[in-house]
Amino acid sequence: MSDLVSIFLHLLLFKLVAPVTFRHHRYDDLVRMLYKVHNECPHITRVYSIGRSVKGRHLYVLEFSDYPGIHEPLEPEVKYVGNMHGNEVLGRELLLQLSEFLCEEFRNRNQRIVRLVEDTRIHIMPSMNPDGYEVAAAAQERDISGYLVGRNNANGVDLNRNFPDLNTYIYYNEKNGGPNHHLPLPDNWKSQVEPETQAVIQWIRSFNFVLSANLHGGAVVANYPYDKSLGHRVRGFRRTANTPTPDDKLFQKLAKIYSYAHGWMHQGWNCGDYFPDGITNGASWYSLSKGMQDFNYLHTNCFEITLELSCDKFPLQGELQREWLGNREALIQFLEQVHQGIKGMVRDENYNNLADAVISVGGINHDVTSGAHGDYFRLLLPGTYTVTATAPGFDPETVSVTVGPAEPKLVNFQLKRSTPQAAPKRRIPNSGHRVRVLPKKVQPRAARKKETMMKQPQRGPA
Ligand SMILES: [Zn+2]
């Protein structure tokens, strides 16, 4: 009983002294927050909904860009998704904090944030499972929170086990030959997934996302694909075989960027578990089928990792400020990682942009494709690569490229129509409806004035 009294006093005290923003946000409150940020930074933000939950709540996204609502060629798209499990709420609050932070720092002319917003189109979805959150939050208020209350959507489905299983195909292809990228959706996929999953799949198919993170809780570790173990049956939390992607080293680097910029994730010991460097291959932790991160990698150009951010899935309000300070630098640095490797335009001899051209990198069996504007992005570690662009009806073009550690290398392709037989042209006009194409200044990032935020001091394990 005395515990309850002390928690009550703690909460009361917090309510009196804490900054108003460090609190949990129910659905209406979350919507207000998104519009508040939009109203404070109307020229660099846009609020949009990608669809509705089972109970009809909107799945809102806050976009940051110097031209909101517009894809600028050669400017990469990146996303954060929070609260996919309704009871894992820290990501939801961190993404609201991040939104407020990006807006305020842009207004303060923090050069690092100005550059980020001008060079990147950032999509932030604080909650993918608003129905589950309401169940979890209501239980929390009545102090009857079970470990799994509110995890699933309103139909009782775990959304991170609800994406089409494409791993089975690539594991087959690995043995028998065949691609492991841009695998098609099953014909009847819409009837197999929940409304939230369907909305997210349509969302990630309609933008050419390059990089992404999915924010969870219940552990503190940066988890990278694959989540589904190759050739092992899932048995609870039994450790299964490490199952790397062809981009394993890149994924490890992306995960380490987060864990080392995080206040304590990289220390490895958290929540009674140990992960060297604070990162793990998903399958080597526990195998998970039909997850979102594997789907992103296997169906789209997007490289997604899963961030487990707190031991306590529903942290007390009083923890939120410390969590924000522990994650702030990591959330920014991870976004900046989209600016590495190579990018460029794929065009024909008449400078028409070629969409869906395939960009292959020698030695890495995972291709990316150009987007609707003919621009492509290929995240790569520093090194020298043989890169080939192909499109139906055109001769392939191969170049050797050396990638440095800083800004992405600009590598454009101009494909010549193949001579033997003219295949149908796949031309995408420059001026599509609703799409304003802006010439993008390409300026080396390293050449620009750097103004970095102070890294937060490290703290002990949560
Ligand atoms: Zn989760």
From TrEMBL:
Q: What is its EC number?
A: 3.4.17.3
Origin, by domain of life? Eukaryota
Is Zinc among the key words of this record?
A: yes
Q: Does the keyword Ion transport apply?
A: no
Return the InterPro entries for the record.
Answer: CarboxyPept-like_regulatory, CARBOXYPEPT_ZN_1, CARBOXYPEPT_ZN_2, Peptidase_M14, Peptidase_M14_domain
* Active site residues according to the UniProt entry: 308 (proton donor/acceptor)
Signal peptide annotation:
1-19
Q: How does it assemble?
A: Tetramer of two catalytic chains and two glycosylated inactive chains.
Q: Which species does this protein come from? A: Bos mutus grunniens
Question: What is the protein's known function?
Answer: Protects the body from potent vasoactive and inflammatory peptides containing C-terminal Arg or Lys (such as kinins or anaphylatoxins) which are released into the circulation.
PANTHER family in the record, alphabetically? CARBOXYPEPTIDASE N CATALYTIC CHAIN, PROTEASE M14 CARBOXYPEPTIDASE
Write out the GO biological process terms.
Answer: peptide metabolic process; protein processing
Q: Which UniProt keywords apply?
A: Carboxypeptidase, Disulfide bond, Glycoprotein, Hydrolase, Metal-binding, Metalloprotease, Protease, Secreted, Signal, Zinc
Give the start-end ranges of region Disordered: 438-462
Query: Which reaction is recorded as catalysed by this protein?
Result: Release of a C-terminal basic amino acid, preferentially lysine
| UniProt name for this protein | Carboxypeptidase N catalytic chain
